[in-house]
Amino acid sequence: MGNRKIAMWSGPRNMSTVLMRSFSSRPDCKVVDEPFYAAYLLATGAKHPLRDSIIESQSTNAKIISKECIEGNSSKKIEYQKHMTHHMIKAFDRSFIYKLSNVFLIRSPEKVVKSLGLKLQNYQLKDTGFPQQLELFQMIADKQGFAPPVINADDLCNHPKNGLKALCISLGIEYFESMLRWSKGPHENDGVWGQYWYRSVNESTGFEKKNKKILPSTSAEKKLIEKATPSYETISNYKISF
After folding, report:
1. Phi, psi (rounded to 5 degrees) for 124
2. What is the pLDDT of residues 185-209, one digit of tens each?
3. Residue 135 burial by CB count (10 A; 0-12/13-18/19+): exposed, middle or buried?
4. How far apart are CA 240 and CA 217, in angstroms?
C-alpha cells in the first residue's frame, strides 16, 4: 500500500534522533534513519566513525535510495524519513525531494557546534549542515511557492506536547499522545552508526528540556558559529510558533 512520506531535514546534533523516536512511537508510522549516509560517505570520502560498517549496511547508490524514498511501501500509513542536509551533496539528483512532505528541524549554531565538536575532530562549516539546510529550504520553497514547515529543536524539547501538536497540524496528520514517550535503548530502525552517535538519546525515554548552560566557545568555534548563523536565522524566520 502507498503511504505518506515525511522528510525531516536537519543538520547533525539538532535533536533529530529524539524527534525520530517520537514519530516511531506513533501507531501509524514507520521511521527510516538517514538513508543517504553510506552514499554520502562513499561519494565524499568523509572519515566518520564506523565508516566501513555504515557503507556495508546501506545502499550507496543515490538513484536507488531516491526511488525508495518516494516509492517504498510499508503497512504503515506514514513513513518518517530522517535526513541529514549535508548528506544531500550536489552530485545527487535531488528532484525526488519535491515528491515528499518536507519539514526542517533547526537548532542554534552555538549548540550544534559545541555538540558536534564532542563527536568529530577537524570539522568544517559544511559538516554542520547549515549552508546545505538553507539551500534545500530555498529550493523547496521556490518550487512549491511557499515555505515548508520549520520547527526549532529547543522549543520542541521545552514544550514537547504543544510543539508536536503544532507540527502535526502543519503536516495535516493526527497527533498522538504516545509521541511524548519511547522505550530506552537502541531501536530496531536505528542505523549502525547509532552505537556511536545515539548514546545520549538511548538513555532517554522522552523529551528533556535543553536550557543547560553552554561552555564558552573557542575562537575556532566562534568562527564557525558566525558563519552558520545567517543560514540559521533565515530559516528561523519561518519556524512554527507554539
Report:
1. -120, 180
2. 999 999 999 999 999 999 999 998 8
3. middle
4. 28
